[in-house]
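User: Predict structure, ligand nicotinamide-adenine-dinucleotide.
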Amino acid sequence: MFKNLVTLVTGGAAGLGRATAERFVKKGSQVVICDLPTSNGAEVAKNLGENAFYVPADVTSEEQIQNLVDEISKKHGKLNVLVNCAGLCNAYVTYNFKTGKPRTLEDFQRVLMTNVLGTLNVTRLAAGLIARNEPDENDLRGVVINTCGTEAFNAVSGQVASAAAAGAIHSFTVPLAHDLGERGIRVVSIAPGMFRTELIDQLPTETEEAITSECILAPNRLGHPDEFAHVVQSIVTNPYINATTIEISAGLSLSMNP
Ligand SMILES: NC(=O)c1ccc[n+]([C@@H]2O[C@H](COP(=O)([O-])OP(=O)(O)OC[C@H]3O[C@@H](n4cnc5c(N)ncnc54)[C@H](O)[C@@H]3O)[C@@H](O)[C@H]2O)c1
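Assistant: Predicted complex:
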């Protein structure tokens, strides 16, 4: 099945996106990696071999993403799977009562712009190409998989921006599935808990240790990015998964606020 697929992974140069690109290339899919021009996307694609192709683009740019979709159309003639992993996850409090300073508006804008509007931008521009596929035996033409985060359901101090972004992506999963379902395109979101990626590596070691020992049920560790990629694979191969958010977190619960 994977040998006939063209998969676009945004944020594919690092973390959850890179793990997805790696797994899908191994399975035989053609994979297009989209990431910022400043990323090491070219190197990641080169290491993955001839079935991986890197297009530098910012998910928040209409022009760059339209060019990306045009390039995929020219190179592969089709797109079957879109995996939106490009995103940020900065932790900060809304108001610092010690310094008397509010967090800047730009800090909130950056997270919401990249995670929420970036996901919608790529999806809206790629949907037309996916819709051109011949329907399969289930009358389906493709699937869009978005990344939100368990912050959508359970978040603590410092997570206002990422919770707002994750909550938005979770909330538009069903209406987006209705919009695109008209042409047999499924929409599914994944809510990861805490995975060992470059993004999580920014956390102080003591915070990470407190989270793994007190907040993650079992197994008592951060997730491996390939375990996220495994969920992406399950969604692609199971046509009956649609219009839902799937959590993968080993029972993460941040209610204790370590
Ligand atoms: N890692 C986790 O534990 C975790 C948990 C919950 C949610 N998430 C969410 O999953 C997504 C991916 O996280 P990750 O851990 O893989 O992060 P990461 O930092 O390891 O990788 C994200 C990738 O996205 C790219 N990117 C950022 N802005 C971009 C833009 N404007 N255009 C194109 N590419 C862009 C980065 O260059 C990077 O390569 C994020 O939205 C994050 O909030 C991650």
